[in-house]
Design a protein that fits this description.
The protein is mainly alpha-helical and about 400 residues long. It is built from 16 helices and 5 strands.
Length: about 400
């Protein structure tokens, strides 16, 4: 997670939730020698930290909203159709929080592109997140959240990117800092613990903490775990994106959610500096209360948004079923129309592959949907054409 301002080490010296440890060496980014101190977070508490009454109110609101989202998701026959756009929306926002910007529609188009051109580096990184999240949401049905699991996911996330270094998929073996690109280690806003035994032990303790039955409310637990993972910063790259994915995985693992429809990063993206400042403040003060309240607000708002979006998409799907009866739309045209809630960007080649029909049949079906106003051709070309469902894009924030 990128930061841009300096912080005096004295702010961390008396922290009740960690200690400063000496570090020295050569900064691989600049070649400069450094001698400084890093912050080593203490293990997470095995009891609920002190929280204000207002914070507990926010936690309760978040729990109720998450319950509504869970109930709604259990009523959806083909949940994967709604998961597809949710994962991609999260991918775009969580990447933007790390300084990687890719337009949402461009990401959807890259999913179905018919030509052989490589996507832009930004789109490639976003699509890596999509692949990682899809794998994670399958794994979490049968696997706990572990160091090994996150290591495998991190390797997927950074594949083919500048972060795909020799230690991809492994706990980092170099010192990292959080600050302005190219700045000195001494000027960093936050310096996570050095590589080695203490980092590994801290990461392993975090893993154990997730599975311990210590009676902490799931919303509070999510907030604590997210802070700790970001403070440890166990990988060379991708810690923020992994940490925000873990929020959803943790809620699924704890039984709060059955499906991963929650997208937390769009809310955090709009409050990027506040999000960063809250994380930093915990390391300085040890006060979890403002951070828990902030995260509870994020979970409540985004759970309500996901519930409302799911309802709108299902209403649109019913409209498409009605349209198929009245126009009429038959065969693959009806199937494409019904599936637009999960695949709002289509091409003849992609439709041919997905529905197991000839290119000619898929192209004819798409032309029919353009004729009745369901799809719009978005490229203006005679080849490699891409068709979009504007109404669905509006619903999912495209």
């Amino acid at each position: 997670m990128p930061y841009t301002s300096n912080v005096n080490l004295g702010a961390f010296a008396a922290s009740p939730v960690g200690t400063l440890v000496p570090i020295a060496g050569t900064d691989p980014r600049t070649g400069r020698q450094f001698s400084h101190k890093a912050f080593l977070p203490s293990p997470l508490p095995r009891a609920t930290p002190a929280l204000a009454g207002e914070t507990w109110g926010r936690v309760s609101e978040a729990s109720i909203a998450l319950g509504r989202l869970d109930q709604a998701s259990r009523q959806i026959p083909n949940i994967w159709l709604l998961l597809r756009p949710s994962i991609r929306r999260e991918a775009v926002s969580t990447s933007a929080l790390e300084g990687t910007y890719a337009p949402f529609q461009e990401v959807l188009e890259a999913d179905v592109a018919e030509d052989e051109s490589e996507p832009s580096p930004a789109v490639r990184e976003v699509l890596n997140y999509v692949r990682m999240a899809e794998v994670a949401l399958e794994w979490i049905k049968e696997r706990p959240i572990t160091v090994g699991m996150l290591s495998e996911l991190q390797a997927i996330l950074v594949r083919g990117t500048p972060g795909g270094t020799l230690d991809a998929g492994r706990i980092r073996e170099i010192q990292v800092v959080i600050g302005a690109e190219g700045s000195r280690v001494e000027d960093a806003r936050f310096v996570p613990p050095p590589p080695g035994d203490q980092l590994v032990a801290g990461f392993r303790d975090w893993e154990s903490w997730l599975e311990e039955d210590i009676g902490i409310d799931p919303v509070v637990s999510v907030a604590l775990a997210h802070y700790q993972l970001e403070a440890l910063h166990p990988f060379t790259d991708g810690n923020g994106r992994l940490g925000r994915l873990v929020v959803v995985l943790q809620l699924i693992r704890s039984g709060v959610l059955a499906e991963g429809l929650l997208t937390i990063s769009p809310w955090l993206e709009q409050r990027r500096r506040e999000y960063q400042d809250h994380l930093l403040a915990i390391s300085q003060t040890g006060d979890f209360d403002p951070w828990v309240r902030f995260m509870a607000m994020a979970l409540r708002t985004q759970a309500d948004a996901a519930t409302a979006q799911s309802e709108r998409l299902l209403e649109y799907q019913e409209t498409m079923r009605g349209l198929a009866r009245t126009h009429p739309l038959r065969g693959v045209a009806a199937r494409i129309a019904e599936d637009l809630i999960g695949r709002p960007v289509v091409t003849p080649s992609a439709a041919s592959r997905i529905y197991g029909v000839s290119y000619q049949a898929a192209n004819s079906a798409i032309s029919r949907l353009v004729h009745v106003g369901v799809l719009r051709e978005a490229t203006g070309r005679h080849y490699g054409r891409i068709f979009v469902a504007d109404e669905v894009l509006e619903i999912i924030g495209g």
